[in-house]
């Protein structure tokens, strides 16, 4: 059975872009594969962040993921910094990672240009991401489109390490994308992103969802109510594909193309379906919020399971790289 690994940063709220692009797929995959899902707090500290709120955000992310349907009986859910082997493998992998490839990563360039002083950790970010996956020798990585370049580099790192230290020890991980691999923000321009404030949160109230959807961008060529629209280039239609049943999607597409519906009609149907789909998630989240000790215990158990797997890989990596066995073995 192929092993699956994926991660999410606790750098803000869990939003419907994360959900449709990745997390919904995680929930499905836990029934088919051995899965590990990780809240990557060590990645979150590579950019300016507030130390006073990171702990709560990490817990909130765990609550969001569990509420969205990750079942700790079926998959391992844990926090990256609870398994120190991630950091050790990260270091060892930096020794086979070409600096030029790190400098070429578009996410690095984007983030770096917004900073006055660029920390080395930001450059190293994709190596830590490679360590996350390779530590479990996972071969499938369900992510959104924005992670594909990191996945490509991860494969390169695995290949280089394998060439030097032992053929085919690390599988070359493959990305698993969904149809909503790139959900745009409500502005209709940039990717929906925690840092851009253009999101609908997975736990937003029905009122807030409607308030945000109402003014959201649609097909830019549809200026008046009478203009026919093109669902293929409308972000609202992408979101319909995540939340509305196939018959509704068909109806929406036809009514958009023929201008039988205006954008607001289309959004109202989406809001209804989204609110209905998210209601059980909000309910489960409220139960978990009322019992943080249970969430902590789940994360501790997840870390213990992950760590057992991580230790095995790392022992073999250390051996193959010629490190002298010692107190940690
Ligand atoms: P992060 O925290 O930015 O996002 C988590 C997941 O959500 C996907 N995603 C989206 N998909 C579609 N449309 C969007 N607007 C959208 N926004 C986010 C992301 O592609 C991602 O799958 N570097 C990673 C975290 C990470 C990781 C890993 C992932 C660390 N180690 C190992 C996979 C494997 C990140 O910042 O994701």
Protein described:
The chain is mainly alpha-helical and 329 residues long. It folds into two domains: 3-183 and 292-321, Rossmann fold (3-Layer(aba) Sandwich), CATH 3.40.50; 203-287, Tyrosyl-Transfer RNA Synthetase. It has 13 helices and five strands. The protein has helices at 16-29, 41-44, 51-68, 85-94, 99-104, 106-113, 120-134, 148-165, 206-213, 235-243, 246-257, 263-289, 292-320, and strands at residues 3-8, 34-39, 76-79, 140-142, 174-176. The strands form two sheets. It has a three-stranded parallel beta sheet with strand order 1-2-3. The chain has a two-stranded parallel sheet with strand order 4-5. Strand 4 (140-142), helix 8 and strand 5 form a beta-alpha-beta unit. The protein is globular, with a radius of gyration of 21 Å. Residues 5-9, 17-18, 21-22, 40, 43, 129, 132-133, 141, 143-144, 146-147, 180-183, 191-193 line the site of tryptophanyl-5'AMP (TYM). Residues 5-9, 17-18, 21-22, 40, 43, 129, 132-133, 141, 143-144, 146-147, 180-183, 191-193 line the site of tryptophanyl-5'AMP.
Give a summary of the structure in a few sentences:
The protein is mostly helical and 329 residues long.
């Amino acid at each position: 059975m192929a092993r699956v690994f994926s991660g999410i940063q606790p750098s803000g709220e869990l939003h419907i872009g994360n959900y449709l692009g990745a997390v919904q797929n995680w929930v499905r995959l836990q029934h088919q594969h051995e899965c590990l899902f990780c809240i990557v707090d060590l990645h979150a500290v590579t950019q300016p962040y507030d130390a006073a709120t990171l702990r709560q955000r990490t817990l909130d992310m765990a609550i969001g993921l569990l509420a969205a349907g990750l079942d700790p009986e079926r998959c391992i859910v844990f926090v990256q910094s609870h398994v120190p082997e991630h950091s050790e493998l990260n270091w060892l992998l930096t020794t086979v990672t070409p600096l030029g490839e790190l400098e070429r990563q578009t996410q690095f360039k984007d983030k770096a240009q917004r900073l006055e002083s660029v920390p080395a950790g930001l450059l190293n970010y994709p190596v830590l991401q490679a360590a996350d996956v390779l530590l479990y020798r996972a071969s499938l990585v369900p992510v959104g489109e924005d992670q594909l370049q990191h996945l490509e580099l991860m494969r390169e790192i695995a290949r280089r390490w394998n060439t030097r230290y032992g053929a085919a020890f690390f599988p070359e991980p493959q990305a698993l994308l969904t149809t909503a691999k790139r959900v745009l923000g409500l502005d209709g321009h940039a990717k929906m992103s925690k840092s851009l404030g253009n999101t609908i949160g997975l736990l937003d109230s029905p009122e807030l969802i409607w308030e945000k959807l109402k003014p959201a961008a649609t097909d830019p060529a549809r200026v008046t109510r009478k203009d026919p629209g093109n669902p293929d280039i409308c972000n609202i239609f992408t979101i319909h594909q995540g939340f509305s049943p196939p018959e509704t999607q068909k109806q929406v597409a036809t009514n958009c193309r023929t201008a039988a519906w205006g954008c607001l009609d289309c959004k109202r149907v989406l809001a209804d379906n989204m609110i209905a789909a998210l209601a059980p998630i909000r309910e489960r989240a409220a139960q978990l919020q009322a019992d943080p000790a249970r969430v902590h215990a789940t994360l501790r158990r997840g870390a213990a399971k992950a760590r057992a797997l991580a230790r095995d890989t790392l022992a073999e990596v250390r051996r193959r790289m010629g490190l002298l066995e010692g107190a940690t073995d």
